[in-house]
């Protein structure tokens, strides 16, 4: 009987000191709410994708080439989102290029769902080029050799300063490279 009284008293005390206007059913306000709706995945040929990357000259540009069916890509992608959130106001432009849809292992819906889950509010493209020439151009300019994930950093002058296939680097190294490039004016 004593235990029940104690539980009852503690329950009454707890409810009497609860802050007014607090509804546990309503979530805390999310400043990024609505961001998911603004996330898009634009189908693009090599020419369209490269035009957008080149148009960002004056900014530091991080390009991430990835696919949903690639476990290392899924593991690395949150770093891209983190860098975007941390450095976009300082001049970093992140651009992702999903190669989902190039085979039967992934498609546009999978990629868009992944981007929304990651809150990837930067520019996102879906590779739709299927010509050998486009593949060669992507390989040449971005040093892409069909190894995923693949990241490339361009300095403010539009010149490539790093790519992950020629110089693998841990996330903290990429972070340092981005900061160094952002400090250059």
Supply the key terms.
185 residues; alpha/beta; 6 strands
Account of the protein in words:
By secondary structure, the chain is α/β, with parallel strands linked by helices. It has one domain: Glutaredoxin, CATH 3.40.30.10. It is built from six helices and six strands. Helix 3 (71-87) packs parallel to helix 6 (171-183). The termini are far apart. The model is unreliable at 1-33 (pLDDT under 50).
What's the SSE blueprint?
Elements: H1 2-17, E1 42-44, H2 46-55, E2 60-66, H3 71-87, E3 92-98, H4 108-118, E4 123-127, H5 132-142, E5 150-154, E6 160-163, H6 171-183
Parallel strand pairs: 1-4, 2-3, 3-4
Antiparallel strand pairs: 2-5, 5-6
Helix pairs in contact: 3-6
The main β sheet shows up as: 6 strands, mixed
- In the CATH classification, which architecture applies? 3-Layer(aba) Sandwich
- The CATH class is Alpha Beta
Give the class from helix and strand content and strand pairing: alpha/beta
Note the total helix count: 6
Do you know the CATH topology? Glutaredoxin
Number of domains: 1
Instruction: Name the overall outline.
Output: globular
Can you describe this structure in just a few lines?
With 185 residues, the protein is α/β, with parallel strands linked by helices. 42% of the residues lie in helices and 17% in strands. The protein has 6 helices and 6 strands.
């Amino acid at each position: 009987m004593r235990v029940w009284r104690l539980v009852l008293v503690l329950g009454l005390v707890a409810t009497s000191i609860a802050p007014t206007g607090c509804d546990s059913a309503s979530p805390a306000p999310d400043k990024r709410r609505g961001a998911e709706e603004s996330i898009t995945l634009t189908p693009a040929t090599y020419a369209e994708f490269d035009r957008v990357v080149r148009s960002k000259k004056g900014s530091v540009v991080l390009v991430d080439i990835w696919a949903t069916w690639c476990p290392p890509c899924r593991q690395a992608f949150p770093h891209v989102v983190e860098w975007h959130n941390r450095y976009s106001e300082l001049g970093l432009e992140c651009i992702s290029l999903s190669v989902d849809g190039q085979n039967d292992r992934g498609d546009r819906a999978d990629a868009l769902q992944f981007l929304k889950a990651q809150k990837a509010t930067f520019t996102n493209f879906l590779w739709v080029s299927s010509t050998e020439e486009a593949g060669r151009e992507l390989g040449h300019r971005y040093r892409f050799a069909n190894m995923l994930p693949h990241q490339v950093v361009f300095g403010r002058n539009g010149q490539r300063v790093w790519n992950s296939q020629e110089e693998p680097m841990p996330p903290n190294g990429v972070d340092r490279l981005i900061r160094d490039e952002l400090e250059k004016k």
